[in-house]
Amino acid sequence: MNKPLRRVAMAMMAMIVLLLANATYVQVIRADALRNHSGNSRTLYQQYSTPRGQIIANGKLLASSEATDSERFKYKREYANGPAFAPATGYFSFVYGRGGIERAENEVLSGTADSLALNRLQRMFSGQKQQGGNVELTLNPAMQQTAYDQLAGSGVRGSVVALNPQDGSILAMANSPSYDPNRLASLSSDEQQKAWNELSEAPDDPLVDRATSTLYPPGSTFKLITAAAALETGKYDYNSEVTAKSSIKLPKVDAQLPNYGGATCGTMPTAPLWEAMARSCNTAFAEVAGDIGEKKLRETARSFGFGQDLDIPMGVEPSSIGDIENQAQLYQSGIGQFNVRMTPMQNAMVAAAIANDGKVMKPHLVEKTLAPDMSVLDRTDSEELGQAVSPDIAHTIRDMMIKAEQYAGDEGKISGVQIASKTGTAEHGEGKDPHGWYVAFAPAENPRIAVAAVVEDGGNVGADATGSKIAAPVARAVIRAGLQGGG
Amino acid sequence: MAATSTNPDNREAPGGPGKGTGAATTTPTRRGTELVLLAFAAVIVTCALTLVNLNLESQPPSQILYYGLAFLALFGLAHLAVRRWAPYADPLILPLVAFLNGLGLVLIHRIDIGNAAEAERAGDAFSPAAPSQVLYTALGLVLLALVLVFVRDHRTLAKYSYTCGLVGLVALALPAVLPSVIAPNINGAKLWIKLGPLSFQPAELAKILLLIFFASFLVSKRELFTTAGRRFLGIDLPRARDLAPVLVAWAASIGIVVLERDLGTSLLFFGIVLVMIYIATERAVWIAIGISLFAAGCLAAYSLFGHVQQRVDAWLNPMTSDSGYQLSEALFGMATGGIGGSGLGGGRPAIVPYAKNDFILAAAAEELGLLGLAALLLVYLLLTARGLRAALAVRDSFGKLLAGGLGFAMLLQVFVIAGGVTGLIPLTGLTTPFLAAGGSSLVGNYVLVGLLLRISDASRRPQQPSKPQPQQPPIAEAHTELVERPR
Description:
The structure holds 2 protein chains of 2 kinds.
Chain A: H1 2-29, H2 31-35, H3 41-47, E1 55-57, E2 60-67, E3 75-79, H4 82-89, E4 92-93, E5 97-98, H5 100-104, H6 106-110, H7 117-126, E6 134-137, H8 141-153, E7 158-163, E8 170-176, H9 181-184, H10 189-201, H11 210-213, H12 223-233, E9 241-243, E10 247-249, E11 256-258, E12 270-272, H13 273-278, H14 282-292, H15 294-303, E13 310-311, E14 315-316, H16 327-334, H17 344-355, E15 359-361, E16 366-370, E17 376-379, E18 384-387, H18 391-405, E19 420-426, E20 435-442, E21 449-455, H19 467-470, H20 472-484
Parallel strand pairs in A: 1-6
Antiparallel strand pairs in A: 1-2, 2-3, 4-5, 6-16, 7-8, 7-21, 9-12, 10-11, 13-14, 15-18, 16-17, 19-20, 20-21
Chain B: H1 2-6, H2 31-56, H3 62-85, H4 93-122, H5 130-150, H6 156-159, H7 161-177, E1 193-195, E2 198-200, H8 202-220, H9 222-226, E3 228-232, E4 235-238, H10 244-260, H11 263-281, H12 285-304, H13 306-316, H14 325-337, H15 360-393, H16 397-421, H17 439-460, H18 474-484
């Protein structure tokens, strides 16, 4: 009987090998798919069983994990002043996932990043609980708060982005309306669902990050790019004479293109380019655009960042000039109408590039990532995206913007600080009040802050709204907060 | 006595086995090895309990040492029983069992903590399973000692084979025929008998009794099975009437599925019968016939019974099937554990319903990882292989068949349940030997291990009687020799 016994023993071994092979399949090969399966509650509980790292900005705690009494969810995410900082922090919800930095830097915050491997090992051997790493943002909390208060306080919809022109760090990115990420981080899934439904059904899209993903017609702020393109051709300079007509006929179509309010550009038949910029004359820039051509306009726009994918680390919607089919459309595009679309982030990048001698710096929100013990894991280096225009041209445009500031209203002016700016009032459809824009940097001679502000649909002013009336005060307040706070 | 003292042969003394002095000095008993390995098992189990405590902080750590020592003392007593009544038994069997049982207790305790938390949240009453499992462990060890005391020679069991067979069959059928008051339908299977607070599964006992019957029956009727019938396609088919025992076993298995709704027990019994016939006859054709019958039975059961279809559906589509919740949670747990596991007390095995019974291997795989699961499966392979080793070494056919059957039975049971919880085969309700919570299974397996110890003792004992002892009582032998001597 020994022969069959040996064979049975072999069969038993084979059965165990089969079990081991299957276990390897489940626990190694299929493991990731099973771990990330939507029905797997363990992955979820795991995220809530260790304290997630903090999100900090300039010493101010923006998001942190607080211990709870719950067995299943040992930590709850809490956002100090949630709505103001929501565009940056994002949210952390076990029903609806993550957004903003919570998503972009999830690996560091949850402690699973490769850069934290050594830290995890140390904690394991010293018997400490695992803990997520921290993320320090570039935000200037005072500017961020001011930006949000300026928008939400007056009940308008819009967005503000402020950059440091020298290194591209994002000083503020605020939206209105915003949302409270605390509600989405509730430990009750019912409460989360209620909040989510309210937010996603709200008419003003509070969950949308206007600063990076809403494309607005830029209106006259686009004249900065038209001017840059014109100066680059060499045919134009600071004093080049351009038309001062109150209205021109669009080529080959039966339509007129008037200046704002039907005004002429000064008292002469022609005006120097700087004055056309300062007075924001549509007729002049439409003709300049027609003169330099679509190709040059696109090239310059691209060198400022148009059409390029950008991670800050959240993705930024690429801005675009849109399709141009004829000369009439090129005229309109030259003054930021027709199909030209920009995010507030892109417009702030334009201002920052002009402020930074024509150099475009990549915007970034993360200053550095930190281990749980606050030692630095990684620091974001400033990155140059390219030279949009030469320093000379940048200075020329800056000088025009200093002149433009004189025509941009007085509300919120900061005494002793020279701002270089450009306003915009963007039509976006029959019967709708215009969006007001204001892009600027300050101080003009030694720029520390570049800002773009947009207020949707006339703000509180209605059809008479202009960029200088509704957007300029918001942006100036943000600049003031930054200069006073040493940002 | 006079006869034995003058016996010139190196024959066994009639006073009982184990008293011979000649060869005993050359064959080591290896009991010291067993004790060292038991201490090793106790250390592993104590460490495991310490880990659970560190992670879940349920008890003061001073108590753990006390538990570890109590565990060692309990198995130390079993060791003494083996030393006294089966001194040549395999030294690995008891330590391997101690390891499995101890780790099972730790896992049950750990799942108790998880279940208690769940029950507290839900406001349900909860009673832990670990304390009663400790009692059953002690009871099992007492029964193991009793088996060693009363079954001094495994061959005596052959004398009671038909009694065993009858009692076994009755025990197997009992829950099916008894009214639901005594034999309730629990989770779709009618396997238990409930008398007041006590409940047990007679199938666990029936398994061993029927094994004894089959071993004895097959040894006495071996020739029947080896007589060739007609040749068909180059295979010697057995005669039709010789198929009777296989057909009876097959019918009984089908009966279990139909009446007790238990696929696992059915598969287990049929597999054991097949392999024992194969070992006895050395003819693989029985396996082929058996597998064909089994396949036919499976197909019939699948097309006829809803509960079989449910099981298969849950196996193929655990994530989408209505009845696949348990398996999908087990798979999620295993995947979350990964290669190294979450650590004892670090996972969430209590999410899986019946984690401490049917799904204890999934709990082990989650918290100990693929490595831990592989170690457990290899321990099972080692334990059952020691049974087959005893079968190879023991001299009598009945012992060979019984040890081979017992060893294979345990491994097949591990295969069926481990394959079920890891998604290799459809899930059937078998217990995991020594690991899972459940009194009858634990006690039954200790009886099984007692028999294996007894047979391994016989296989390694240096002085074997040349003739089978039971047929020749000592007194008759002594008498015969006394008469012959004066001649």
